Amino acid sequence: MTTGFHFVTHTVLFVEGQPVGYKIFQEGDEFFLEPAEVPDHSMHPPSLTVMHERDQWSVHGTLSQDLKDQVIEDLSALSVPAT
Length: 83
Prior knowledge:
single chain; five-stranded antiparallel β-sheet
């Protein structure tokens, strides 16, 4: 993880139909979502990087539109000011 990010909160996202805990970190308009360890070792949830620019969210680290939609919904609800 990039230095300078500070912890914001936790969330749960569904990856391949399984709930996965994520820690959310922020630096300015950039967020980093780091997955918790998953008991099912055959599943490898992605680390995600999210940018918020000009009222648009850009999610990197997955091709799953469902996962991207979950991330955007959770981050939009946070109302975390940029630092």
